Input
Amino acid sequence: MRINPRITNRLVRWGLVAQAYCTVTVLVLIIGIIFFKGFPQVNFAFIFSFPQDMGRHGGIFPAIVGTIQLALLSILLATPLGVGTAIFLTEYTRESTFTKLIRFGVESLAGIPSILYGLFGFIFFVIKLKMGWSLLAGVLTLTIMILPTIIRTSEEAVRAVPRQLRIVSYSLSASKWETIKKVVLPAAMPGILTGIMLSIGRAVGETAAIIFTMGSSLRLPLSLMESGRTMAVHFYILAREGISMEKAYGTAVVLVLSILFVNIIAYYIMNKAIARYS
Amino acid sequence: MIDRAVLKEQFVKWVLVAFALSSLLFLFLIFAFILGEGLPLFLKVGVKKIILGMKWAPTKGYFGIFPMIISSFLVTVGALVIGAPLGLSCAIYLSEYSGKRMKILLKPAIELLAGIPSVVFGFLGVVYIVPLVRNYLGGSGFSLISTSLVLGIMILPTIISISFDALVSVPKTYREASAAMGATKWQTIYKVIIPSAKSGILASFILGMGRAIGETMAVIMIAGNALKIPTSLLDPLRTLTGNIALELAYATGDHRLALFSTGVVLMIIIMVLNYIANFGIKRKIAK
Amino acid sequence: MVMETKIATDKLRVSFGKVTVLKDVTIKVHRNTITGFMGPSGSGKSTLISVINRMIDFENNVRIEGDADIDGKSILDGSINPIELRRRVGTVFAVPIPLPRSIFENIAYGPKLKGITDRTTLHRIAEDCLKKAFLWEEVKDRLSTSALKLSGGQQQRLCLARTLALKPEIILLDEPCSGLDPISTAKIEDALSELKSEYTIILVSNNTKQIARISDFSAFFYLGELIEYNTTDKVFTTPAESKTEDYIQGKFG
Output
């Protein structure tokens, strides 16, 4: 028996709508559960005090500071490298074997799972370069890990700057670098910032690559050579070792909120840029 | 004065070349060090004994990771079975059915889902999905099915956003031509749009697989990490990534080398997947 | 009246790949005049302009033969710094393209590159150039607003002012009025007529009436060749070539 195509059409439509809503429901559930269970744990003391008894009591202050240190330092290193690479690829060369090779490198880096970054950072920075479990080893590993994201978003942003703007700048007696510095980079800035924001989000949420390079010391890292703990690592240890469900939920709220916050800023910048160019 | 300006331009150019080369350097270092640590054990013990070996007791000289290869494969397929149909449906809904308002609401929501750290997924899996499986299906709950479910949800954003891009880039004229011939919307989607977006959709599945097979922390929390090949959906298992993460902190000597060998196997699998995905995407662009 | 030569080309030949777009053009452009370049599209007039300001450097696959010089010195020589050259040769493009900054910053862009950083000097330059471009009265109270908020005609006069701020000797205008309404066009033409006492101006235009109105000399290009070049009077009243006559009368183009 052949089913009437119009009935199929309607059935499919409802099926798709149902699945789409299902997906949204999952998202709302995930965030809802975290917030519902976690918010009661979060207060001034939780954020600004040190953990006690492995995190069973007290707050998560060192983890917050560790997260900020790690994210900011990695961004500080990865941004010039990434934006520089993007500028080189778009402004200084035509498509060639060399650019293809670099693109291959970037794509490959982007595809490597974080545990392999952890493995590499562990053997190279921690062991061979004798950094030990330290903020520095974590920062360097994470820098390499977020580099592809920054390169790709920056390249897209730089490419989107109209060619005419460059021509005008040259006609006004600007050199190549002056044109890039004064015209191309400012125009591409929203796109570049979006990439940076997304990378911060990734840095804040990362665990596997961090735990084997930065370690998981509960003390506040006061120098680059000291070990420390990010919120994600702290959360993982609280949850996995069953130290305290309440504190785990509390940490999760702060963690998810900071990532949401960073993502929303990225979205805001992107939409503003899109509005400006269209 | 002029010379200094010219020199500065040259200097900037070479700095940028160096920056661009850094990505290649990093890639080289990662390969060199993971292979450098991981390959010797293959030579010492034998490729066959590691890849096809059934027993993992690294302190006693057994380095078999076959069960982990199979487990990684199983959770990845499991994640795809759950994530692919859901993700593709969502993408089709977004590109073909939803209104503009829904699109503006859903797209960021899906991207936010992509931003949630994997440890959070793992944690929620432990707290909600594992007990659910234990109570209704039996076993300990730390199982192939729980892991697949959580990974399936985790790869949704990847699948949705890449398939969506592929579907949206199908030319409008195809839709119009099909509609002009009296096809219903679903017939158009099924017979015209999906076939033309095929390579992009496949690429999204493969990238989703890449994410699932590389996932570590969430998997450790839910999989149960048992050292044998699971024989049912309710059996616990240990993946390649889990093996590395569980033991790296305290492993020494051959034991540590064996973890790098595990990394080498993982790296080869990921590279093959990425190659297939890139190949698919490039062919689409060439068309 | 003895005319001094400012720009001269000698058998200038430009090819993009296998296509030759300028065929052995020899022309002398005189100091402190407006010279109109006209001809249908593809005649090579814009290519000639891009040799004079060396913007042709940004095209791919170009081959240049023959020579072009300013004040008797070759500008195609390897020792010429194109950046220095572009300070002497200002360009206004067909479509006004303000930089996405304020009106003031647009004008200050060139002077700042030269190393002028003093605010009062920059403001004096801005006022001076905006007055010369007949834009000062319209924008003097909002120099810090975005240049993108100006109308098309205002933007094109801003581009002219921005070029003047380089203090060039030569101004090249590549169909500067093609997108403008008659009133804006008239304002640009008025500005140009005043400016020729200080600058050597080349005006590329498809609008023969505009060339007839404001230029002192006219050159007619066709398929890469210079067909006719003389005083505007002669070209428009008694053209030597029948092609020129046909073009001026609008029989093709």
About this structure: Chain A has two domains: 5-40, 44-277. Chain A is about 75% helix and 0% strand.
